[in-house]
Amino acid sequence: MRSQSRRTMRALVASAAAGTLLAACAGAGGHGSSGDDSINVLMVNNPQMTQLQELTAEHFTEETGIEVNFTVLPENEVRDKIGQDFANQSGQYDVATISNYETPIYSANGWLQPLDEYLSSDPDYDAADILPPIQRSLTGEDGHVYAQPFYGESSFLMYRTDVFEEHGLTMPDRPTWEEVAALAAEVDGAEEDMKGICLRGLPGWGEVIAPLTTVVNTFGGTWFTADWEAALTEPEFVEATEFYVDLVREHGEAGAAQSGYAECLNNMVQGNTAMWYDATAGAGSLEAADSPVRGSIGYVPAPVEETESSGWLYTWAWGVQGASANPDAAWEFISWASGTEYEQLVGETLGWENVPAGKRASTYDNPEYQQAAGAFWEVTRDAISEADPLDPGVQERPAPGVQFVTIPEFADLGTRVSQEISAAIAGRQSVQDALEASQDMAEEIAEEHRNR
């Protein structure tokens, strides 16, 4: 991964693919001058990040004297901007939100500063408290840690317990996808304007491709074999994709081809769907104090077929640009934003269900968090612990990743394939045609890797 081709680098920098979470609107902060008392932070505009922005001046800047200038953008835009700024090492931003997809790639290219010395010299941060799967996912090929999580997530199935009870339906403790499909057919239309399930169909490697790839994994498929053969037209990949497309077309939400995380969350909150398979982070919104469905949602592990588990692993994390002139101030911000002190602040001021969880073991031992997140905290913790990026399917992989393949080209490839899949969901082409076109794209990348 260290000797990237020019084509690979261009694909990575130009990528503006959607990720696991989307929010509806963006705000932007101005850029302060680079100095010991000022850092520039570029971050995604999801709700927990904007809460952080609102709390920073009063609770971080007043204590440390470090001014934080935020630039907050939607996910597609922020990924593109981060890729360009970090690849060019312009130093415009000291800190940026990156995921466990970008971290090993960026670190291999020298775009990130290692954080090991900060972690070892900051006992109050308690690095040992970070959940092992999350910490491993933010570690580079060289064994150094290059980012720290703001929150972590896996995926699980959410369902309306009250609707299931009313109609005499039982959700298995660990459902299979076939069982979920049967339940979706049973509950579809059980309530007025209610569909059986919501699944992402919106184009983007972090939108439709994320849940679809977990289905592919557990059905026995893979994007690439261990010896770099593209496998998108293999029977297992085809079966999984046809299953997913058929399920969302027959029992999914209206306008599924343009529905992503945000749209499915809204459908679930508004009572327009009986089930939703997606990120564990969605539970906080469903159980929020003002949620109409609070207390009527059940949570079970991601459905499976041939594997024991199938939940993805994802984290929005803080990385320090290699060219940052203020790494010490950048670490002070990261230590605060990813520390237990910040979780306590959110719990006390905004409610414990809003805590950016999924990263620390101590969060799940906290009685206040357990009480607020009683419906979902154990399932979430177990899903993150069970996620295995090195072995997510039934065969050996050439690169790690559950819902993505950790190679620079995947952001562009996944986005182009997602457009084909969304077209199939919209009924504009068959799954077979979509995957044949996708196979050709994947084979070009596979050939490059075989020849390295």
From TrEMBL:
Residues of the signal peptide: 1-26
The organism's place on the tree of life at top rank: Bacteria
Gene3D superfamilies: Periplasmic binding protein-like II
Pfam family, one: SBP_bac_1
Keywords on record: Signal
Protein name: Sugar ABC transporter substrate-binding protein
